[in-house]
Design a protein that fits this description.
Elements lengths: L10 H29 L4 H11 L1 H9 L7 H20 L3 E4 L10 E4 L1 H18 L7 H4 L1 H25 L12 H7 L6 E2 L2 E2 H29 L3 H19 L1 H4 L3 H5 L4 H15 L1 H8 L6 H30 L13 E7 L5 E7 L12 H12 L11 H25 L1 H9 L10
Antiparallel strand pairs: 1-2, 3-4, 5-6
Amino acid sequence: MTEETPSRVPQWIHKTLVPLFLLTFCPPTVFIFWYINTSLGGSFTAFWDLVQTNGLFPTLINIWKPVFFGSPTAWKILACYSIFQLLLMRFVPGKPFLGPVTPKGNIPIYKANGFSCYLISLVTFCLGSYAFHWFSPTIIYDNMGPMLGALNLFSLFFCFFLYLKGRFKPSTTDHGISGNPFFDYYWGTELYPRLFGWDIKQFTNCRFGMMGWSLILFSYAAKQQQLYGLSDSMIVAVALQFIYISKFFLWETGYLRSLDIMHDRAGFYICWGCLVWLPCIYTSPTLYLVHNPNHLGTYLASGIFLAGAASIIVNYLADRQRQVVRAKNGNCFVWRRRPHIIPAIYTTHNGETKRSLLLASGWWGIARHFHYIPEILGSFFWSMPALFTHFIPYFYVAYLTLLLLDRAFRHDQRCADKYGPSWDQYCERVPYKIIPFVF
C-alpha cells in the first residue's frame, strides 16, 4: 500500500509502527533461520532452549556477531555474481519490452532476455564447479552465513541510497515522499529507479534474487550429496523449485507488469527483501534438508512431485491466460470459448484516458485471485519432502500465504480506485476473492 492508496489503518501504525517493526524484526530473523537450519537441526525448540539459557540478546549476538560484516570470501562471491548478472542484463540479446504505463504516464523499457540469462547462469555455475574446478559446488552453502551478513549490511545502505536518489535525483517523474522518513525508507521514494541504464528493481528482484535462488538450491543439494549422499527428498524439493524458477523466467515479462513492479517502490520492502530475505527464507526448506535427508520412496516422492508440478503449471497457465487475452485485445479463445471481457476506462494522473481489459473467464472467472492457490500449494509441495518433524521448512508457506492474502486486498482496493464502476461489474461477475464459494 503506497501513500497514493488510502489506508484504513491509522497513519501512525501504517507509516511508522509497521516500518519500524519490520526494519527491526526482519534482519535478525534471517540469521536466526540460517543458524537454526545449519546448527540446530532445524529445531525452534533447540533455539528456545538457547534463549532460556543465555537470554535473547546474548543469543542473537552470538549468532550474528561472527557474520555481521560478512567475510572477504563472501564479499568477493557477491561482487563477482553481481557483476556477472549486470553484464548478462546488458549484453545478452533480447527484444525490447515495454512495461505498463505508470500513473504519471511513464513507460519503463526492459530487455526480454531473462530466460537466456537464467540458462547461462546455471551452465556457468556447473562448468565453473565441475568442469573447470574454479570453485566447489558447495561454495554458497559454505559461505551462506557471511554472505547474508554482507548482503544485509550492503542492502541497508543501498536502500538509503535509493531513498536519497528518489528524493534528489529520480529517474522519472514517478517519485515522491510521504513526509515520514521511516515509511519512505521502508517503502521507497521512486517507482522505477535506474543506474547507468540498469533497472534497479529488475536487477534486485529478478537477476539477483530469483537467479540466485536457483544457484543456492544447486549448492545446497551438492552439500547434502557431499555429506550424506543425495536423497530423493532433496531431488524432489529442488526439482519443483527449479520448475517454479524456470516458469518465472519464461514469464519474466509478465512479472514486470505485476503488482510488485507496477506499484511497489524501490525501498527496503522490495529491495532488501529480494537481496536478503529471499536468499534465506525462500530457500529455507531446502537448507533444512541438507542436514535432514529423508528417503521418501518412489511412490511418495513421485506423488509429491506430480502434485507440486501440477500446481506450478496451473499458476503459470493462469498468469499466461490473462497476458495472452490482453496482448490480443480479447480476440482469442479461453478454454475453447470467447472470453468474457469487461472493458475498464481509467484516467492517469496526467489526465490521459486509458483502457484496460478485465478478464472474467477461465481461471479468472473462478475467483479474482485464484492463481494464488496453486502458488501456495506449489510452495507446500516443495516443502513437504522435509516431512513434518519441524515447522521451519513450512515457514515460507505460512509467510507466502499471509503475503498473498495482503496482496489480494491491496490489489482489489487499487483496482476499485482505478477502475470504479467497471471493477464493481467485474466483482459482480466474479464474486470470490481467492477461494471459490468460500472467500
